[in-house]
Amino acid sequence: MSLKINSNAPNFEAETTHGKIDFYEWAGNNWVILFSHPKNFTPVCTTELGSLEGLKDEFDKRGVKIIGLSVDPVEDHTKWSEDILDVTGHKPSYPLIGDKFLEVSKLYRMLPSSLNATYEGRTPIDNQTVRNVFIIDPNKKIKLILAYPMSTGRNFQEILRVVDSLQLTDEYKVATPADWKQGEDVIIVPAVKDEEAKKIFPGGWNAKKPYLRVVKNPKS
To answer: How many CB atoms lie within 10 A of CB 205?
Structure first.
């Protein structure tokens, strides 16, 4: 079975560039971004790892921990990090999982659980489905799953925007509209009826439709 939004994020132990970790213990009570790669020394992934490091301060401000995964040994990750620094100007300071036995990739349904193989002899094409982003909340629930083709680099500004939305909507009874950015107006969720909404949002709202009530961002 595939993982879905609000599924429990599976726990695991793994070797990383920061040593062996228990994922739940490492995550603690933080939000987490887990993003995966089919192989080290691949061109698009090289740019992605550096790009995310360049935004790490923004994720830190939001209490989000970052962890990467690639289907290769940890020793190769260390060598790859030098290339990433050379190409992007950023060397990953977050941990990178060495998934040489494909255990985490299979646990997170990025590769078939029945697959009997290791990283050895496998090409990026063999592992092309290991191109996911998972956003996991402090309760270890998966809140977002994105899967990218190998030819398309990930937009980490968009992932940062999604984190802002998830954290806001986790705290308040609101949802965010298309193309929303931090600070902009939001939508009162349908589960909140008008009488309750008057208490929560005493400043009122703009009812564009009976089911679409736009209100000021409660954090503005």
So the answer is: 18
- From the candidates 14, 32, 33, 45, give the one annotated as an active-site residue: 45
Residues 10/140, Cβ–Cβ less than 8 Å: no
Q: Note if 45 is an active site residue.
A: yes
pLDDT tens readout for residues 78-102: 999 999 999 999 999 999 999 999 9
Instruction: Give dist(CA 66, CA 36) in Å, integer.
Output: 11
CA–CA separation, 213 and 177 (whole Å) = 11
Alpha-carbon gap, residue 49 to 53, rounded angstroms? 6
Phi-psi region of 175 (alpha: psi -120 to 50; beta: other; left: phi over 0): beta
Buried b or exposed e, range 139-156, using 16+ CB within 10 angstroms: ebebbbbeebebeeebeb
**Strand, helix or coil at 107?**
helix
Where do we find the tokens 């995310």?
A: 52
pTM score over 0.70 = yes
- pLDDT, tens digit, 9 for 90 and up, residues 180-195: 999 999 999 999 999 9
Q: Which domains are seen in the chain, by residue range?
A: 13-154 (3.40.30.10), 172-215 (3.30.1020.10)
